[in-house]
Specification:
44% of the residues lie in helices and 15% in strands. The chain is elongated.
């Protein structure tokens, strides 16, 4: 068992070293960095990220971040590239080559071929005087004074710095492209953000036979049967032309029952909510949730969906939004 104080000290020392390495990168955001970002912006094809070992792992993350924020990108393993995968590279691409030393043999071997193909090369390295530094079109300095590893061997501060610089490139590109949260959602349709920003009310509402409707002349008793059958606890009240007039809910009926049983034979038009909250089918599902939650004095659980012609085309229930992951 290690000494508690020693363990904490080494952990804090690691974080301090890596934090300092990242902060020193601010001095490297120079004109060449800007030119590299502009080159990516001007690229009509893809950004291909490559790196060996730990640099490769960082490269995969950088490629993934670029791809998810509006810059077409993928990772290419340098060893596999030397054995055929260089066929993926075209003269219209830009290659980001990552090597802290700038001398990784797998990277160095493919540089002349990439140059012959005609793709641009951006180096992310700690040594400008390395073979990678000499071969590239743009050099981004990710060097660190020391690694957090006590032996100075395991890439730690250097990989953290490279990852942070990759994020700096991606965020600069994202901002210049005016990449929006809606754009982000398009690339993440399976995530929570994607569901909130892509799902519309039309995607989640109960419609057709599942949409609870009742004519204004029907009784409260009839409304109970409709609500029981559809299972949403409410029904849209319509006129002879199918126009929306109001909303009848099980809450209205419960409160009326507490006062007078005779109301069950009254027309729903006389007891309905005449101005309930509603929503249009093309609105975002997240907006439906917001409308429900903001209702005073307490949140509501159902929203009639009304189209431009004033007809109730569906009903949204809070459980639908929960099921779809909008909440």
């Amino acid at each position: 068992m290690g000494d508690t104080a020693f363990i904490k000290d080494k952990a804090l020392e690691t974080l301090q070293i890596e934090a300092e390495a990242v902060l020193k990168l601010k001095e490297r955001i120079d004109e060449e960095f800007v030119q590299a970002v502009q080159a990516i912006l001007a690229c009509k094809a893809r950004v291909i990220v490559t790196g060996m070992g730990k640099s490769g792992h960082i490269g995969r993350k950088i490629a993934a971040t670029l791809a998810s924020t509006g810059t077409p990108a993928f990772f290419m393993h340098p060893a596999e590239a030397f054995h055929g995968d260089l066929g993926m590279v075209t003269e219209a691409d830009i290659v980001i080559a990552i090597s802290n030393s700038g001398e990784s043999s797998e990277i160095v071997k493919i540089l002349p071929i990439i140059r012959r193909i005609g793709a641009g090369i951006i180096a992310m390295s700690g040594r400008r005087d390395s073979q990678l530094g000499k071969f590239c079109d743009y050099f981004i300095d990710t060097g660190v004074e020391r690694e957090a590893c006590p032996l100075g061997l395991a890439p730690t501060a250097s990989t953290t710095a490279t990852l942070a610089m990759g994020d700096a490139i991606a965020m600069a590109l994202m901002s210049v492209r005016n990449f929006t949260s809606e754009d982000f959602a398009l690339f993440h349709p399976g995530g929570a953000l994607g569901r909130r920003l892509l799902l519309t009310v039309k995607n989640v509402m109960h419609t057709g036979e599942d949409n609870p409707l009742i004519h204004k002349g029907k009784t409260a008793k009839d409304a109970l049967f409709v609500m029981t059958d559809k299972g949403l606890g409410a029904a849209s009240v319509i006129d002879d032309h199918g126009q929306f007039l109001g909303l009848i809910t099980d809450g209205i009926i419960r409160r009326a029952l507490a006062q007078d049983n005779n109301f069950l034979d009254e027309p729903v038009e006389s007891i309905m909510f005449k101005e309930p909250l509603t929503i249009a089918p093309e609105k975002m599902a997240a907006q439906a949730l917001h409308v429900m939650e903001q209702h005073k004095p307490r949140p509501i659980t159902v929203l009639p969906v009304i189209d431009a012609a004033g007809q109730p085309v569906g009903m949204v229930h809070l459980t639908d939004l929960l099921r779809q992951g909008v909440v």
